[in-house]
Design goal:
The structure holds 2 protein chains of 2 kinds.
Chain A lengths: L7 H6 L14 H5 L9 H9 L2 H6 L1 H6 L5 H4 L7 H17 L2
Chain B lengths: L2 H16 L7 H4 L9 E2 L3 E4 L3 H16 L3 H14 L5 H4 L7 H20 L5 E2 L9 H5 L3 H17 L4 E4 L2 H14 L6 E4 H7 L12 E4 L3 H6 L4 H10 L2 E3 L20 H16 L4 E4 L2 H10 L5 E4 H4 L1
Parallel strand pairs in B: 1-3, 2-4, 4-5, 6-7, 6-8, 8-9
Helix pairs in contact in B: 1-4, 3-6, 10-12, 13-14
Classes of the chains: A mainly alpha, B alpha/beta.
Chain lengths: ~100, ~325
């Protein structure tokens, strides 16, 4: 069972131009990721859009392991701003969970 | 406390209080310019963002960190975060662990960049102790409040000195100043150019590679995919007479060196670097980089059969 917060996407969007909803989950990004983590980045975007803060929190390490190298973004057929989305999620984590 | 939060907290303290990710005393981060006769400030300045200067100290910190048994690390982290606002722990941790040859190497890159610029008729100024770090890590790791504060400090420094054109030496600072700052802080209207592009524009005079040297190019992700600086380094190397080899993944599809993961996931960063080195050394034994972070990571992953050289020293 997943607890869903319908406001999560809106809360994340407060930190920038979060365009994860353009992702149609083709998996190109995951296949190309040099970090080799299957959750990066499309599954993380699904959790954000779905409103699953718990799942997003579980993916904390993956979110911070992203190199922001844009290999995925250069090949994304949907033009998702993947690195900027990850950065926005990090800002959300800093303020929501870490309180730094 | 996990390592991630510890690193973020330390970074936040350092950038807010000491205006740098790894705060070095002014006499250290400006030492490379000693004897070069660079004028103070001016309309056109060379901006190092302290990046090349930081690397030998970062290496020293890593060596120190590896020497600490993991059972002490949790306690030690707590003590460090407690005293860091008062004592510059990051710098303190490097004392006695910096290798002279590493420092000379990275300082030497900056000296060589100045020499190249001068050979091409450009005489930049330098802000010396007033030069600030660009805040890249705060931006990339989501320390937005800290980053915003820092952008205002940097803007103020440039404005006070009457700067109009900024010549950058590394991809991360170039991206920050060229793409991020104009959106992040009002009034950031300087002309920003990488020294690579500038040398090409000026005809790339006086460049000379080692005779018949075959080199393989490692494009920086930031230069290639954020800033579209792909041709300039190749032109400089060709002009210098180097024989260039391209790895399977180069230019717009270059592979990352793993560097950005170094601060939080050092082991994973080393794995990515090792894979990249394997890919590169299939083409040539001299790897050319144009970023101090790429240089540091690839060099650490390189065996004895290959070497990593900064582009400024190859031409």
């Amino acid at each position: 069972m997943i607890r869903v917060n319908p406001q999560l996407k809106k809360e994340i969007e407060r930190y920038g131009d979060f365009n994860a909803n353009q992702c149609f989950s083709c998996g190109t990004c995951t296949a190309l990721c040099p970090m080799g983590l299957k959750i990066l980045p499309r599954e993380i975007f699904r959790f954000s859009l779905l409103g699953s803060e718990e799942k997003l929190k579980e993916a904390e390490d993956a979110i911070y392991s992203c190199l922001l190298c844009r290999m995925c973004e250069a090949n994304c057929p949907q033009g998702v701003k993947i690195s900027e989305n990850i950065r926005i999620l990090r800002t959300y984590f800093t303020e929501r969970f870490f309180k730094i | 406390m996990n390592q991630k939060i510890a690193v973020l907290t330390l970074l936040s303290q350092n950038i807010q209080k000491r205006k740098s990710a790894l705060p070095l005393p002014g006499f250290i981060h400006t030492r490379w310019a000693k004897g070069l006769g660079l004028k103070r400030g001016g309309e056109t300045i060379l901006y190092t963002g302290q990046m090349y200067q930081i690397v030998p100290y970062l290496l020293a910190l890593q060596r120190r960190q590896r020497g600490i048994p993991s059972r002490f690390s949790e306690k030690l982290i707590r003590i460090i975060l407690l005293i860091n606002p008062v004592i510059n722990v990051s710098f303190l941790g490097t004392i006695g662990a910096v290798k002279r040859e590493e420092r000379d190497y990275y300082f030497g890159v900056l000296k060589k960049i100045v020499a190249h610029l001068r050979q091409n008729g450009i005489e930049p100024g330098y802000l010396y102790e007033k030069e600030l770090y660009a805040g890249t890590l705060a931006h990339d790791l989501g320390l937005e409040r800290v980053f915003k504060e820092h952008t205002r400090r940097l803007l103020e420094t440039f404005k006070k000195d009457g700067v109009k054109t900024i010549i950058t030496v590394d991809p991360h600072s170039t991206d920050m100043l060229k793409r991020v700052y104009p959106k992040a802080v009002k009034g950031f209207d300087f002309e920003v150019k990488s020294y690579l592009e500038l040398l090409v524009e000026k005809g790339a005079k006086g460049l000379k590679a080692k005779k018949d040297e075959e080199v393989v190019i490692h494009d920086s992700c930031v230069y290639a995919r954020y800033l579209d600086v792909i041709e300039a380094p190749r032109r400089l190397l060709k002009r210098a007479g180097a024989r260039i080899r391209e790895p399977r993944f180069s230019g717009e599809i270059t592979h990352c060196c793993g560097g950005p993961a170094e601060s939080i996931f050092p082991e994973k960063a080393r794995e990515v670097a090792k894979n990249r080195v394997d890919e590169l050394t299939k083409e040539a034994k001299t790897i050319v980089t144009m970023c101090p972070i790429c240089h540091l990571n690839l060099k650490e992953a390189c065996g004895s059969g290959a070497r990593v050289e900064d582009l400024a020293l190859c031409v």
